[in-house]
Amino acid sequence: MLLLQNLSNALILACTYILMAAGLTMVYGVLKVLHIAHASVYTVGAFVGVLVFSWLGNFWLALAIAMLVSGIFGVLIYRSTYFYLLNAPRTVPLIASVGMFVMFTDLLQKPFLMGAYQRAFPAGGAGLSAIKTALFSFTAKQVLILLVTLILLVLVYIILTRTKLGLSWQAASMDREMASAVGINLNRSIAANFFLGSALAGAAGVLVGVYNNSVFATMGDLPSYKAFIIIVLGGMGSLPGAILASLILAIVENFLVASVGYVLPRDSIAFLVLILMLMFRPNGLLGRE
């Protein structure tokens, strides 16, 4: 029973990792840029979600609006910065991304935005019921996270494999110049990529805010490096790899804490896993050799 319950808890943790890392992986796949400012989009999504929920009291509407605003925010980041750095050495947009992340985090801490205090996000399970069996159980909040993640992953899969937009992303990830030569509108395709990836990050921010009943300006600090570790573990630019790495990392974290205890800070475990991966499989789980 304890084994299955730990696996259940790891699955929920992995869901939040997947939504955060998926967008970062999608952006890297097309631009080959580590979009560190993606973590700010995550925080903005949580902030918009808690504001809309406090005004309207409807979680699903708050989630939809948070994803929309996060998507638009991501497109604005691309259009105002990365668009002008597409042909620059990859270290240039990376430095710009780090600078944007620091700037946005500082702005969000201003009193006229989120301020220095935490905000409660008392959405509960959004009307969903808990699942209890003899072997494992999910709280209503965990059911909510699992349901939303599954819906969004199915949506992403359909877009990637069944639409011209998804095919344009795949072509651009292989060779942007060739994709442009065969008639793909790269600017529109990359903007759409940023929109979807940022919307996923916004959804992750909302779900984590609800799960912890807390939203604050610096909540993106931890995901900023955790998502980076996940995409390295999975293989740079591989969405299936990011999903697999999220599951493995969540399971390792849960079982080490459950079996050994808090010998090390929980979040440091991700770095240990990363070091081992770089030593024995530097290309990641599903990375290209």
Can you offer a commentary on this structure?
- This protein is 71% helix and 1% strand.
- It is built from eleven helices and two strands, in the order H-H-H-H-E-E-H-H-H-H-H-H-H.
- A two-stranded antiparallel ribbon has the order 1-2.
- A hairpin with a 4-residue loop joins strand 1 and strand 2.
- Helix 1 packs across helix 9, helix 3 packs across helix 8 and helix 6 packs across helix 8.
- It is globular.
Question: Which helices and strands, and how do they pair?
Answer:
Blueprint: H1 2-31, H2 38-56, H3 59-80, H4 91-108, E1 131-132, E2 137-138, H5 140-162, H6 164-174, H7 176-181, H8 186-212, H9 221-234, H10 239-260, H11 268-280
Antiparallel strand pairs: 1-2
Helix pairs in contact: 1-5, 1-6, 1-8, 1-9, 1-10, 2-3, 2-4, 2-8, 3-8, 5-6, 5-8, 6-8, 9-10, 9-11
Give, in order, the helices and strands: HHHHEEHHHHHHH
List how many beta strands DSSP finds: 2
Global morphology: globular
Helix content: over 70%
- Major sheet: order of its strands? 1-2
Structural class: mainly alpha
Can you tell me the CATH architecture?
Orthogonal Bundle
CATH class term:
Mainly Alpha
- What is the number of domains? 1
